[in-house]
Structure formats: structure tokens, C-alpha cells
Amino acid sequence: MSIWIFILPVAALNLCLFISVNYLLFENTIFAVDEIGKTGFTIPYIDGGVSISRTARTYPTYLIFKPTMIFTAILLIKYWIANNKLIGIVNNEINKKKYFLIFGVGSALFLIAHSIFLGIKFDYDLYKFFRRFVLLAFIIFEIIAQALLVMSLIKIREKISTLFNKKILKLKILLVSVLVIVAIMSMPILNSSEYTHFKHALEWNYFIGVITFYLLTFLFWKNPKNHVHTPEGV
Questions:
Q1: Which one-letter DSSP state was computed for residue 41?
Q2: 149-152, Cβ contacts within 8 angstroms, sequence gap of 24 or more
Q3: Is residue 12 within 8 Å of 65, Cβ to Cβ?
Q4: Which of 24, 64, 95, 108 shows the smallest number of beta carbons within 10 Å?
């Protein structure tokens, strides 16, 4: 499950970028790109030439982005529930709820809300604030959930030492630490009306960084069939 949480958003995001950059390929077809979604050649991870929102919120790219993000959010909910069950089994606390479950499921719900409202236009300041709040809440909840899960894994690492790759755990710790530090350091810039290209590049790379956590999860666990049972999907 974790590998699909990584692959699906990456594929959808870059397919939307491809369509926006190569909009001429779709001229005179039913998939003609809306004007606002058209952009010149750019590698936004480097030059920040376009935002994720611009490439994903217009026709036809929202037909790809929205369903993919909603499906990914459903997988995220299953992912966090499975990890909560795993930690509970290891600690003999099956009925005890973990904080990372609350933040993890919360981040998935915010992602669903963001995907639904992306591209819908209402000229109300409250609505604009709501969209920004939902996106920011998704990021904050996701980072907190990831950090809390890593802390939980560190606490039980001796009990599951034969089940996971220790190097990958270190990479997870490093990744979450970098994401937290970058988020804190970027706050003054994000509140500024300047540095547009930098903010766009940060947006693309930060999103990849967040979902790379799930790629590391895929690489983290060894084959449970050779050891003990773990919850399906983790």
C-alpha cells in the first residue's frame, strides 16, 4: 500500500505538468487545455516556473489530479490504521489509540477536502482563506503524523529488530527532520508576496519529500512471512 501512496501522486502530478507544458498536443481535441493551465517549458522542481495548483486545477488535468488524490487519501487512512494496529500489537495495547493515527487520518481528510475544492471559484475572502487553511492543515498534520510514527518505531525498534531495515529507519528520521526544519525556515518567505519562483520550487520539492516517506516505508519492512504476522497493508 505504501508504494502506491508514493507512485500515484508522483505520476498524477507529473502527468498534469506534462499536459500543461505540452498543451499544443491537445489542441482541437476534447482535452484542449484551459488557458490558465497552459505554461511554457519549465522544470518547476528547479526553476519554480509554475505552481502545482495551476497545473492541476484546470481542465483536463483536474480529471487526473482530483480522483488520484482522493484515492491516495483513502489509502492513507488505511495506512495509518494499519500502523496503529501494528504498534498496538507490538505493545499489547490494541485498543489504545495513537496520536499519529489522529493526525494521519486528519491529514488524509484535509487532502480529500483540498482535492474537492481545488479549482472551484468563489470570490469570497472566507472561501480563499478556507482553501489555504485546508492545504496548510494537510501539510502540518502529515508532518506531525510522520514524526510521531517515527518516534513510535524508535521506541519499539528492539522488539521488531528482525523485521525492518535499520538504515531505512535512519533515513526516515533524517527525512522527517529535514521536512520539519524546512517548514519552519520557510514560514517568513511563505508569508511574503515576493520570491514566487522560489515558493513554487519549494512547493514541488516539498510535496515529493512528504510522499517519499511512504517510499521509505515500502523499503523499511522485511518480508513478514519469514518472521511474524503484521497487519495487512503496512
A1: S
A2: 149/83, 149/100, 149/104, 150/176, 152/87, 152/98, 152/100
A3: yes
A4: 95
Task: Encode 168-200 in three state secondary structure.
Answer: HHHHHHHHHHHHHHHHHHHHHHHCCCCCHHHHH
Place of cell 498496538: 88
Instruction: Tell me how far apart the alpha carbons of residues 139 and 176 are, in angstroms, rounded to a whole number.
Output: 12
Whole-model pTM: value is 0.86
Distance, in Å, from the CA atom of 147 to the CA atom of 159, rounded to the nearest integer, reads 20
Query: Residue holding cell 519549494?
Result: 202
User: Would you state the torsion angle of the CA atoms of residues 48, 53, 57, 63, taken in this order, to the nearest 10 degrees?
Assistant: 80
Query: For residue range 65-103, what is the model confidence (pLDDT) as tens digits?
Result: 999 999 999 999 999 999 998 888 887 765 566 789 999
Show the CA angle centred on residue 82, arms to residues 76 and 86, nearest 5°.
145
DSSP bridge partners of 164: 221
